[in-house]
Amino acid sequence: MNDLSNAVLRERDLAVLWHPCTQMKDHEWLPMIPIRRGRGVWLEDFDGNWYLDAISSWWVNLFGHANPGINGHIREQLESLEHVILAGFTHEPVVELAERLVELTPSGLERCFFADNGSAAVEVALKMSFHYWRNTGQPAKTRFVALENSYHGETLGALAVGDVPLYKETYEPLLMEIMTAPSPDCYEREPGMSWEEHSRLRFEAMDRLLAEHADTVAAVIVEPLVQCAGGMRMYHPVYLSLLRDACDRYGVHLIADEIAVGFGRTGTLFACEQAGITPDFLCLSKGLTGGYLPLSVVLTGNALYEAFYDDYERLTAFLHSHSYTGNALGCAAALGTLQQFGQRDVIGDNRQLAARMAAATEGLKDHPHVAEIRQTGMILAMELVRDHNTREPFPWQERRGLAAYQHALTEGVLLRPLGNVLYFMPPYVITPGEIDRLARVAARSIDAAVAESA
Ligand code: PMP
Questions:
Q1: What lines the ligand 1 site, CB under 6 Å?
Q2: CATH classification of 71-343 is 3.40.50.2300, yes or no?
Q3: How far is the CA of 196 from the centre of ligand 1 (A)?
Q4: Class of the 33-66+346-453 domain?
C-alpha cells in the first residue's frame, strides 16, 4: 500500500473506472489527481502535493475535510446502527435531524421526506407537487415551469427541469416538456441597471406565463439567488418575493432547490431567508452532511402532507422510496454538521471571509479578460471573456477555463471552472491568508489561460 504513487493509481483507475462529467479521452493528456487524504481545506495526493479545495469538492464540504467533530458523530453512530429501512422503521438520528431541520428552515416547513442525493430530492419534489394536485381534484395541473440556465440534477426528471444545454440537449428526446421563463441572471442586465431593477424586469415574463398557464402548472422550480451549474449567475432576492406572491395568486407550488446554495453559501443559512419567503418545497443536499455522505431531504408543510394522508385503499399515499433513504450514518454526519454551526457564529464569521474574498479579487475587476466579478455571500465568480469591454466570450472550444484549472493545480489550488467562469466556493474553515493565496493563484491562472489570446 505504501508504495502507491499518483502514477500507479492513475493507471489502475484508467483501466477500470468511468468518471463523472468527464470526456475520458482528456485523460490521455490531463492527469487526474489521486487523493490520499484531506485535512481542513487541503487535499494531499499520493506524491505528497497539497491542493487547496476552493470548490468544496463539488460544493459539498462546509467545515473542512476530516473534520474531527463530524468524524466523531459518524464514528459514534457506526457503533450502534449503520442503516435501517426507513419504511415501517425509524431511528434516532433521522428523527433528531428532521426536528432540527424543521426548526432551522423558514417557518411553515414542517415535514421532512428523505432521499439520498440532490437529483433524487428534485424528483421527489416534482412528483409530490404533481401528486398533490391529483389528490386534491386538480389533475390538469401537471406541468412545470423552470428558469433559463437553471440546473437541478441529472436524472431524467431533474434534467428536464434544467436548462444547461451541455448536459440536457443530448437527452432531449427522453425528457418531459416543461415551460421556461427568462432567467433573472444579472450578468445580462443593461449597463446602469441595478440587480434589483433587472430582476424585477425579468419577473414580468414569469408573471405572464403563470397568468396564462396556471390551470395546467403544478409548480415553478428555481435555484434561489445563484444559478450555480449555469455559471454562478446571480440575481436579486426581490425575484423570489415576487415569485412567491405570484405562486400564491395563481395557485402554483414553489419549489426552492437549495441543494447547492443552502447551509450558508449565500450569506444566510438558507437563500430564501433573504427574500423572507417560505417555498412549498425546499430541497436540500450537498452541505447537509458537511460533504461527508450522500443524503438529501425535501421539506414541505403540513397542509400539503395532509393531502396524502388517508385510508390506504384510497391510494393517495406517496409511494416513493430509495434504499438508502434517511441513512443513519448520513443523518449522524448531518447532525455533526449542524453542531458545527452551533459552536460559533458561522454565518457572521463568513461575512468576514466573504469581504476578504471581495477585497482579494478587487485587482481583477478591470482585467482585460474578466467581464465581471460577482458575489453572493461565500460564492464569488469571475467571468472570463475575450474582451472586458464588449464581453465577447471566448469560443468554448478553446477551453480557457480548463487551462486555468491546469495552471491552478501546478500552484496547489483546486479550482474547477464552469466553462469560462472561475469561482470560489470554499469550505467555511478557510483562513483569510488562504483566501489571499487563492486570489493570487486565480489571477495567475487567468493570465495563463488567456495567454494565447493576442
Ligand atoms: N440541484 C442543484 C442546484 C445542484 O447544484 C445539484 C448538483 N450540482 C443538484 C440539484 C443535483 O444534486 P446531485 O448531484 O446530488 O444529484
A1: 117-119, 122, 151-153, 223, 228-229, 257, 259-260, 285
A2: no
A3: 26
A4: alpha beta
What are the strands, taking DSSP E only, across 133-251?
143-147, 179-181, 217-222, 226-227, 233-234
Which residue is closest in CA terms to ligand 1's atom 2?
Answer: 152
Grid cell locating 277:
419567503
**Neighbour tally for 156: CB within 10 Å:** 13
All CATH 3.90.1150.10 domain ranges in the chain, comma separated: 33-66+346-453
* Average pLDDT, rounded, for the chain: 97
pTM above 0.90, yes or no: yes
> Ligand 1 centre and the CA of 79: distance in Å?
31
| 118 CA to centre of ligand 1 in angstroms | 5
Please give the average per-residue pLDDT across 203-215, as a whole number: 98
**In whole angstroms, what is the distance from residue 436 CA to residue 425 CA?**
14
Res. 2: pLDDT tops 70: no
Distance 260 CA to ligand 1 centre (A): 6
Give the chain's radius of gyration (CA, Å): 22
Q: What is the pLDDT of residues 96-144, one digit of tens each?
A: 999 999 999 999 999 999 999 999 999 999 999 999 999 999 999 999 9
Residue ranges matching CATH 3.40.640.10 in the chain = 71-343
Identify the CA nearest to 424 among candidates 407, 438, 408, 440.
438
